[in-house]
Transposase
Amino acid sequence: MARGNGNRYEDAFKIETVKYINENHKSVAQVAREVGVNENTLYSWLKKYGQQPEIKAVKSFSSESAELRALQKEIRDLQEENEILKKAMHYFAKSPR
């Protein structure tokens, strides 16, 4: 159950909700409606739990995957440039001077 004593939510629920916001890149307002928690409460959870290592890992994962895609694209571009340079080298090596 999400609620602990009285009107308080358990820490595990708070952390999972913050992870959910970060993993799914949804707005706080949308998640607030989904889980039935006030937006301001979610913002305070984000502020409080957003710096924990497991939450940071979720945040950095998306940026790391974006960085990986960018690096893979750069590798493809460089490989293509190398192929063009090899062809040009063969062309100029064969032409008489």
Residues 11-94 form a domain with the Arc Repressor Mutant, subunit A fold (CATH 1.10.10). The CA atoms of residues 25 and 59 lie 10 Å apart.
